[in-house]
Design brief:
This protein has 211 residues and is an alpha+beta fold. The protein is 15% helix and 41% strand. It contains 3 helices and 11 strands. The chain has a 6-stranded antiparallel sheet with strand order 1-2-3-4-5-6. Strand 5 (102-108) and strand 6 form a beta hairpin. The longest helix has 14 residues, at 2-15. It is globular. The relative contact order is 0.11.
């Protein structure tokens, strides 16, 4: 009887959603349930330009690791490209099915050792325009997901997915619109809107490929 009641409530909740919302939830779940086939490490350069035009280049190490129960992303920055033994800051994002993402931020404190704390807010990564939750694709975990349309975007067959924040903050996103490549599920482009509905960010990768 309890199981029947629970099923009835779940069915009733789903029935209140439109077809576009049902498809949106399914697509978002498909994206966040992707599991890396193997661990890997890559390096690149993070080029940051501030409002005055000043540029800063940081070496970035990006690691993906996988375990039987979860998988994670690890980002580290280095001030000198020639010295990868001493990093400036580190972000670890832990993913697991049916659980919320966990964000662990670490930074060295000289002779005091290492400072480690869990982050639950929109903190910039390495003083860039990337927030920590951007790197974890947190907006795909929001409950309201809606497929707006399907179209060719940047020569890719895409599904346009709108993710709406149920509790937007004044310094966060109210919604994110993503063009998701049908074949690879990679983000071809994404617009992030602020609390007042004004476009705040445009994520525009030069290229994508499925690995």
């Amino acid at each position: 009887m309890v199981l029947f009641f629970a099923f009835g409530v779940a069915a009733q909740t789903t029935n209140t959603l439109s077809d576009a919302e049902i498809q949106g939830r399914a697509l978002a779940q498909k994206i966040i349930r992707q599991w890396p086939a193997e661990s890997s490490t890559n390096h690149g350069t993070l080029q940051i330009r501030d409002g005055k035009g000043n540029r800063t280049n940081l070496l970035v190490e990006f690691e993906i690791y996988s375990s039987p129960i979860n998988w994670g992303n690890l980002y580290r920055t280095y001030s000198a490209a020639a010295d990868t033994s001493r990093w400036n800051e580190s972000l670890e994002i832990i993913h697991a099915n049916n659980l919320t993402n966990r964000y662990w931020y670490m930074e060295p404190r000289g002779f005091l050792g290492l400072a480690v704390f869990e982050v639950t807010q929109t903190t910039p990564f390495a003083n860039s325009d990337f927030w920590l939750h951007d790197l974890g694709l947190e907006f795909f975990h929001w409950p309201t997901q809606k497929v707006l349309k399907k179209e060719i975007h940047r020569t890719c067959a895409c599904t346009v997915l709108e993710s709406t924040n149920p509790n937007p903050t004044t310094n966060g996103y109210s919604r994110v619109v993503s063009w998701v490549d049908t074949e690879s599920l990679g983000i071809v482009e994404a617009y992030a809107y602020d609390f007042n509905g004004k476009k705040l960010k445009d994520f525009y990768p030069k290229d994508i490929k499925k690995v």
